[in-house]
Amino acid sequence: MPVPDLPSVREWSAPEREQWQQWWNSPQAARWDESYVPTVAVMLTYYGKILDGTATRDHLTEYRQLATALGLTADGMKRLGWTFEGDE
Fold it and tell me: Which of 7, 47, 51, 67 would you label with 57, given CA atoms 20 to 30 Å apart?
């Protein structure tokens, strides 16, 4: 799936746009479809708050939980039963 457009709900910073590209070009994104766009966008919002220093403890918790649910952490990949070529 090509990298989807960022939702036009707000202006996204350059670091957020770059991170969007990185996530959607990750091996994990091969397991995602268009229904993941809103979830990844919410995670990106938390990412932006982390970068600009406005993230609360709840934002950090939600960010970690979403990253795990999307398979973007080692624990998340394990929970989803995902392995990639070269994993041992």
Answer: 7
In whole angstroms, how far apart are CA 41 and each of 5, 34, 54, 83? 10, 12, 17, 24
pTM equals 0.89
In a domain, 44, yes or no: yes
| 13, part of any domain | no
Q: What is the pLDDT along the chain (88 residues), one digit of tens a residue?
A: 899 999 999 999 999 999 999 999 999 999 999 999 999 999 999 999 999 999 999 999 999 999 999 999 999 999 999 887 765 5
- Whole domain around residue 60: which residue ranges? 36-80
